[in-house]
Design goal:
320 residues, mainly alpha, Rhopdopsin 7-helix transmembrane proteins, 3-stranded mixed sheet, 5 strands, globular
Length: 320
């Protein structure tokens, strides 16, 4: 897709109006297989996360801070997956995988917003787990509904502002030459190098946003689990220690997968992994994690399993 010609100060110069996504593969047969596989993954992501939200809302036993946060984590996963999966699926069936400049900016904005909101929400959930383990007698008083709502608003608000700054500074650069993105979605770290402008300010703002939102959230999680570990060590009985750790196991697994993948993608030098490895990490980060999060919480959680059994019984009773 050729860049458009614009006039400025009596001189012609080009401005990119479309980006070309290379996608995951050029093989037509493989693309059809990938289309079917990723369609199933996307549907599972939608159904499982939406089902978890509904289950938490209708079952009174799940009306606790942990599940309140989990319902919003599931909403983030739905939005995050939906920002990339539908276009990726449609691109598998196209010969020319192009995306308009505005659509690319919108896709990045939504994905970045949800990704940064997830960082903050995981930090809030880590604080919740610390209070549950370290201050169990004051848990209900400390983690009040009002505080939980403020923490969720703060997580979404921080993600929105961070994404806004990153998107505006990244997409206000002048793009006049190459317009090929070597991935299946709009990743700002692969778009900024295509700019004809000096990208220093945009890269600095992107770096600062990652520090303030991503790293600060990670630091809160590390500190929370440090306090959790100290509290568990104070428990005299082995059974009590195991029970306390079990309340944090699902969250710890989600944090490990989320941050492990994101740190591998964005912090390791590009020379340490190939373009194919970059794409595989992107697939896992963007496509698989939103599906894995509800599965990790559901399969390891007795309360959710019991709530699901109760809901199935109610439905079967109504249908009889």
């Amino acid at each position: 897709m050729a860049p458009s010609m614009l006039m400025e100060g009596g001189r012609n110069h080009t401005s990119v109006v479309m980006f070309v996504l290379l996608g995951l593969s050029d093989d037509k047969d493989l693309q059809l297989i990938l289309f079917q596989m990723f369609l199933v993954i996307y549907l599972v992501t939608l159904i499982w996360n939406l089902g978890l939200i509904i289950l938490i809302r209708i079952d009174p036993s799940l009306h606790t801070p942990m599940y309140f946060f989990l319902s919003f984590l599931s909403f983030i996963d739905i939005c995050y997956s939906s920002s990339t999966s539908p276009r990726m699926l449609s691109d598998f069936l196209k010969d020319e995988k192009t995306i308009s400049f505005i659509s690319c900016a919108t896709q990045y904005f939504v994905g970045c917003w949800m990704g940064q909101a997830e960082c903050c929400l995981l930090a809030a959930m880590a604080c919740d787990r610390y209070v549950a383990v370290g201050r169990p007698l004051q848990y209900s008083a400390i983690m009040s509904p009002c505080l939980c709502q403020k923490m969720v608003v703060g997580a979404y608000g921080s993600g929105f502002l961070g994404s806004l700054f990153s998107t505006v500074t990244g997409f206000l650069l002048h793009y006049c030459g190459p317009n090929i993105i070597p991935n299946f979605f709009c990743d700002i770290t692969q778009i900024i190098p295509l700019s004809c402008s000096n990208p220093f300010i945009s890269q600095m703002i992107l770096f600062l946003v990652c520090i303030f939102v991503g790293f600060s959230s990670f630091l809160v999680i590390i500190l929370s689990y440090g306090f959790i570990a100290a509290s568990i060590l104070k428990i005299s009985s082995l059974k009590g220690s195991a029970k306390a750790f079990n309340t944090c196991a699902s969250h710890l697994a989600v944090v490990t997968i989320f941050y492990g993948t994101s740190l591998s993608m964005y912090l390791l030098p590009s020379s340490s992994h190939s373009e194919k490895q970059d794409k595989l990490l992107s697939v896992f980060y963007v496509i698989f994690i939103p599906m894995l999060n509800p599965l990790i919480y559901s399969l390891r959680n007795k309360e959710i399993k019991e709530a699901l059994r109760r809901m199935v019984k109610r439905l079967t009773h109504l249908l009889q």
